[in-house]
């Protein structure tokens, strides 16, 4: 049972080690519909790319690996690894449900400081890269899971969202207000119509309906005089 004080982490990804990465990716994409992120399988060699993060994560013993990143239907990550050097080792059985452990699981932490909760070897103010490189150093006898925490970057998206809105408000205003020849009240009505209509209601139709609800516009004093006179005549007739 989860304590109220503990943040519930989101599952980031699960990884599997396989003997034939092409066949596995083909099966998961064609049968289960998983999406291959980047549309390619990565082939990483220490001799060609010694600074690659994968060598920091798995240590000096790894020299070559093939990797693929897939996404499930609910956007959870599914990593496939084919270890070339050292070579993949089969379990010897097709299915062994009572055999404990799996390759690794990754969770997304709400803050980078929570990395230290996984193991004392991870500094409290660890960055995402530090968490990723230090997590596999956990003693094998202590756990079969290696956790990787990712720092919270949500504020960056809010910043970009704010900049986008600030920059494009004048353009949007010109497109939907000035070109539609609507005053403020019909504009409010336009948004009400669009909201009520949902996805089936486009902006052009909402603008047209808002104009129908709007009072007639008067462009000159002569038109105003004609409107006043017409109203006066009708009131006399009544």
Automatic annotation (TrEMBL):
Mind telling me which InterPro entries this protein's record contains?
Answer: Glyas_Bleomycin-R_OHBP_Dase, Glyas_Fos-R_dOase_dom, MFS_trans_sf
Whether Membrane counts among this entry's keywords is yes
Q: Which domain of life is it from?
A: Eukaryota
Presence of the UniProt keyword Membrane in the record: yes
A Pfam cross-reference name:
Glyoxalase
- What are the residue boundaries of the Glyoxalase/fosfomycin resistance/dioxygenase domain, all occurrences included? 11-110
- Which keywords describe this protein according to UniProt? Membrane, Transmembrane, Transmembrane helix
**Any stretches that span the bilayer, and where are they?**
157-176
What protein name applies here?
Glyoxalase/fosfomycin resistance/dioxygenase domain-containing protein
Instruction: State the organism of origin.
Output: Colletotrichum liriopes
């Amino acid at each position: 049972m989860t304590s109220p004080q503990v943040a519930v982490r989101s599952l980031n990804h699960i990884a599997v080690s396989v003997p034939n990465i092409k066949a596995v990716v083909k099966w998961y994409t064609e049968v289960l519909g998983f999406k291959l992120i980047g549309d390619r399988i990565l082939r990483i060699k220490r001799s060609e790319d010694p600074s690659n993060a994968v060598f920091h994560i798995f240590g000096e013993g790894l020299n070559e690996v093939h990797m693929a990143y897939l996404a499930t239907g609910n956007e959870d990550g599914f990593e496939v690894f084919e270890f070339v050097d050292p070579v993949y080792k089969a379990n010897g059985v097709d299915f062994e449900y009572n055999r404990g452990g799996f390759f690794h699981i990754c969770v997304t932490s709400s803050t980078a400081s929570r990395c230290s909760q996984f193991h004392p070897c991870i500094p409290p103010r660890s960055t995402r890269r530090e968490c990723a490189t230090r997590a596999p150093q956990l003693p094998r006898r202590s756990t079969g899971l290696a956790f990787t925490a990712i720092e919270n970057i949500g504020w960056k998206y809010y910043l970009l969202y704010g900049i986008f809105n600030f920059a494009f408000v004048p353009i949007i205003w010109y497109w939907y207000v000035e070109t539609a020849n609507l005053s403020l009240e019909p504009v409010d009505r336009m948004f009400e119509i669009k909201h009520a209509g949902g996805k089936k209601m486009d902006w052009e139709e909402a603008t047209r309906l808002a104009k129908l609800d709007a009072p007639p516009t008067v462009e000159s004093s002569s038109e105003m005089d004609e409107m006043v006179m017409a109203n006066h005549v009708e009131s006399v007739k009544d």
